[in-house]
Amino acid sequence: MSKVLVVEDAPSEMELLSHYLQQSGYLVISAMSAKDALNKAIELKPDIVVTDVIMPGMSGFTLCRSLRRHPETENVPIIICTSKNQEIDRFWGLRQGANVYMTKPFTQDDLIRAIKSVEG
Asked: How many CB atoms sit inside 10 A of residue 43's CB?
């Protein structure tokens, strides 16, 4: 069973993402901030990270860069899941190290397809 670290500051979005993933057989680790996510990623070694972009403190873009720079997390696939839907946002997210950039709203199928595309 793959472990997915979900980084989302909005409780309703966190609940939705967690529900979709658990229903599809994934173990979910949750983090309400990018800073918390960075610590959990290093400590708990998730198989995949799904992160929002717009969060207080550290953004999802900064989280991507930080995960890519740390030896424990440099190869963990990252999926950005955000409402930022401009082409420049997508470009920037992928430049920061994300493997997949998807925009809200999304379906359970969209999320699971993205997860499966990065699973080893």
From this structure: 10
